[in-house]
Design a protein that fits this description.
443 residues, alpha/beta, 6-stranded parallel beta sheet, 18 helices, 14 strands, 42% helix, elongated
């Protein structure tokens, strides 16, 4: 099948590469010439495990190409995927300008039947708006489909190649049949392709992410209660997670959710409810709790030292990305932690295996002026007053605690991801604070 993917960001590049790997001919379109040049030269601009092998094979075999020529890509394609940014505004409303502007441009290039697919996460009613935009400029037949992505950063390739489900939203049987044929190679094990109307498909993505964000936030609230009453959230999680109605996933407490999906999707569905005169109080609380949770570790630090003046103190920071196996720092807790520590006068020595450059681009200069960035995790331990863990990268899970004590001024750890076993931390002689578990204080 001839496919055009408009936008070579995270979703567009993963989707285009995986469609090409299954035998389709894919042209990825972008207006960033620098990015296109890198892609054409085999440089992948994002970090995503497993993507490189599929990418290089598809490019080598001529199934995956890159261009800035939107007209050519649209003319030759049967299915056109819109994988464009929909950033949230200050009020949480999704910005559809990229999607609608491209839809308007596409309308001028349609010469025969096309399927226009909204792959981006978009508010309810966007398919209607895209359809109206194109209809205003052409009489050529086309269909608009809502096909939300359910890709986890760090596992996106596997999620695309082996999806738990595929959601296709369209009122056109022809479009549904073509989209089903396109996705059938990925669901050979029997996972469902679910067809529905466009608006239901649009809200399905928001509903899924909002529910998972609520699940995470609920466990963070339970963790905060555990700290107050002397319970251990790890034990609570095991007891709750074995209930099949609840399940084990997304029950790990920590310093809040981040990334490109949960924050903006929760905001967007909350905004949609508000625009339709409904007060979505649960999500209001989810957003408020998550905002507070991101800097909860800084409040623990201030309480431990008995002051909010951290001048003269240096903290190591392990992890900058919002989660492991990605270089994405959008809404990462590290951004909020470093800003809060800087305001209290602290200095920071940070290490992350993938996200350092993206963190530098996203941070305020005042914060960067208070930071050093190390190339190896143990370098971030040297002569620090305490270590903060903000991302649960696997390489952090089996540390040499004796080296900690040798390199650090004092073996003090503030763990925002509950990486270490409490008994091992106590045996190693650490002062160790985690989330929702009893604190260990070296005597």
């Amino acid at each position: 099948m001839e496919i055009a993917v408009i936008g070579t960001g995270y979703v567009g590049l993963v989707s285009g590469t995986c469609f090409a790997d299954s035998g389709n001919h894919v042209v990825c379109v972008d207006n960033d010439q620098n990015k296109l040049e890198k892609l054409s030269n085999g440089v992948i601009p994002i970090y995503e495990p497993g993507l490189d092998a599929l990418f290089y094979r598809s490019v080598r075999e001529g199934r995956l190409n890159f261009t800035s020529d939107l007209k050519s890509a649209v003319t030759n394609a049967e299915v056109i995927f819109l994988c464009l940014p929909t950033p949230p505004g200050a009020d949480g409303q999704a910005d559809l300008s990229f999607v609608l502007n491209v839809a308007d441009e596409i309308a001028g290039y349609i010469e025969d039947y096309k399927i226009i697919v909204n792959k981006s996460t978009v508010p309810v009613g966007t398919a209607d708006r895209v359809k109206e935009t194109i209809e205003a400029k052409t009489d050529v037949p086309f269909d608009v489909v809502s096909n939300p992505e359910f890709l986890r950063e760090g596992a996106a390739v596997d999620d695309f190649l082996k999806p738990e489900r595929v959601v296709i939203g369209s009122s056109s049987q022809k479009a549904c049949d073509i989209m089903t044929s396109l996705y059938e190679p990925f669901v050979r094990s029997g996972n469902p392709i679910i067809t529905m109307d466009e608006r239901s498909a649009e809200i399905t993505k928001y509903a899924a992410n909002a529910f998972l964000a609520t699940k995470i936030t609920f466990m963070n609230e339970i963790a905060n209660v555990c700290e107050q009453v002397g319970a251990n959230v790890d034990n609570v999680r095991k007891g709750v997670g074995t209930d099949s109605r609840i399940g084990k996933r997304f029950l790990f407490s920590g310093i809040g959710y981040g990334g490109s999906c949960f924050p903006k999707d929760v905001q967007a569905i909350h905004r949609t409810a508000k625009e339709n005169n409904y007060d979505f109080r649960i999500l209001e609380s989810v957003m408020n709790v998550n905002e507070t949770q991101k800097t909860s570790i800084v409040r623990k630090i201030a309480a431990y030292y008995g002051t909010e003046d951290l001048s003269g103190k240096t903290f190591g920071l392990w992890g900058l990305s919002f989660k492991p196996e990605t270089d994405d720092i959008r809404e990462a807790p590290s951004l909020y932690i470093t800003e809060a520590l800087t305001k209290l006068g602290a200095r920071i020595k940070a290490y992350d295996p993938e996200a350092t450059e993206n963190f530098k681009k996203a941070s305020k200069q005042q914060v960067l002026d208070s930071m050093e960035f190390e190339n190896e995790r143990t370098q971030a331990l040297k002569d620090i007053d305490a270590l903060i863990i903000a991302t649960e990268w696997n390489e952090f899970r089996q540390p040499d605690f004796e080296k900690f004590k040798h390199l650090m001024k004092a073996p003090v750890i503030f763990d925002g991801r509950n990486l270490f076993d409490l008994s091992k931390a106590e045996k190693a002689g650490l002062t160790y604070f985690s989330v929702g578990r009893p604190a260990i204080k070296k005597s």
